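Protocol step 4 of 5: obtain the predicted structure for the target chain.
Materials: sequence only (see below). No template structures provided, no constraints applied. The aim of this step is simply to have a reference model before the mutagenesis design in step 5. Sequence pasted as it appears in the construct record:
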Amino acid sequence: MPASYAYLGPEGTFTEAALRTLPETATRELIPYVSVQSALDAVRAGEAEAAFVPIENSVEGGITTTLDELVAGEPLMIYREVLLSIAFALLVRPGTTLSEIKTVSAHPAAQPQVRNWLKRNLPDAHWESAASNADAARLVQEGQYDAAFAGEFAAARYGLEALETGIHDAENAQTRFVLVGRPARPAAPTGADKTSVVLWQRDDHPGALRDLLGEFASRGINLMLLQSRPTGAGIGNYCFCIDAEGHISDRRVAEALTGLKRICLQVRFLGSYPRADVTAADLRAPLPGTSEDEFMAAADWVARCQDGRF
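Step 4 output (structure tokens):
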């Protein structure tokens, strides 16, 4: 495959800024795509080695466009994640004043992060969604809108100026991005890992979700994301996107996935990969009875019982 990474473009997006924090990008061609879907399809078609896309933000949770693309279609796998602190700038054509702004644009995920600022400062401005924040800046450059919410770094790229900077409704807002490629063997565990899966219930019955979550809870596995997404099979039919602590090579994670595969209609493994928020030294000790050594000791005891050596 070409030594290239696809990403949600155009140039000047927060996605590009986060992608450039990966050391290996120095040896990759970075190719912007107009949507998350087209970036991921480039990987499926062999046009790119991997795609880098947003998947979650700390204000609105999971980014549904990305989740839905990972749920459907030819399977892909997550290999890396990056966290980027997000603050917006209000980009305008040079000379534009705040009172002249009647239309503003940005990616839909940006709106919840600047809603209160808009209400205070531009209460009468009309919001228009764009494919990305950088694309909104491009549309401002072309005269279609008066202002765009984007990274301050995008101003020079599109010949705009930052009328306001540091815009955010929530302090310490972050967006999580993931590097996605074709399925292969996961990287070795680091001790601070995350495993992502999609689960489909076999049937809808009282306690069905509890049964799924119980496979994690009974093994002391903490969940970091739980989001339902419609399957398209009718109202009330959902699958569940889950991020769980640990690596598929950990005994407790492997046992949980085994149990889920047994009770679910379908399980899609999206990868085990290093966490971007903590290191192994930062993690709390596992609950009693859920450490790797305790799982191995329990398995050894069962084996001895089977051999009559108890």
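Step 4 remarks: The chain has a mean pLDDT of 93. The longest strand covers residues 264-274.
Proceed to step 5.
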